[in-house]
Amino acid sequence: MKRRIIIFTGPSLSHAEASEILRADYRPPVRRGDVTDALSDSPDIIGIIDGVFHQSPAVGHREIIEALQSGVTVVGGASMGALRASELSELGMIGVGRVFRAYLSGEIESDDDVAVAFDPETLEPLSDSLVSMDYNFRRALRKGLISREDYKRLITTAKNLFYPLRNYRRVLNDSEMEEGKKDALSEFIKGEGVDIKREDALEVIGYIRKLLRG
């Protein structure tokens, strides 16, 4: 029997790219009431990757719990999905990915760590997530491109920016660092930067695909 899958994604992983990996009903970032509405379509699996944080009410815990209690498998990761999965894992929501584990362990706690602005029409991200920035700045630190003090300045600058304004160019421009280090870090981000949320979104899709294979 063919199982019905509904996945909420957008800025972390486009519908077009996700569709190349798994055929599903892809919907925009989840908001309050969307999971309840999805239940009327009798899904077998709901994947939550992206969701709204501040533009409108976020997806509620109760509606996810309702889905779980009705027998729907709910998988989350990358962004809002990671946050809700960390909060509801004991009730049966499945969390996957680096961001989920960071929320679950308490390494990160705020929704600001994963929040990004996105185009409401194309769903493309318009800013960079703090969680990805932190990951890449730590990699640059390990490679010796920046010092520990540089890292602290970069993260402080990034955290002090309102999330829609947060991007690598702005953070590097506003941070007190040697220009040579800024140039080296900028090249590193362009050539080797990793989007943690995108990687985790792919892991969510892959996990659901494995579920379907049994």
User: Total strand count, please?
Assistant: 5
- Helix and strand content put the structural class at alpha/beta
Shape: elongated
Helix content: 40-55%
Radius of gyration from CA coordinates: 18 Å
Low-confidence stretches: none
Strand content: 5-15%
Order of helices and strands: EHEHEHEHEHHHHHH
| Total of domains | 2
CATH architecture of the largest domain: 3-Layer(aba) Sandwich
Q: How is the largest sheet built, in terms of strand order?
A: 2-1-3-4-5
Fill in the CATH topology of the largest domain: Rossmann fold
So what's the CATH class of the largest domain? Alpha Beta
The biggest beta sheet is recorded as: 5 strands, parallel
Q: For the terminal residues, how far apart are their CA atoms? A: 12 Å
Mean pLDDT: 96
Count of DSSP-assigned helices: 10
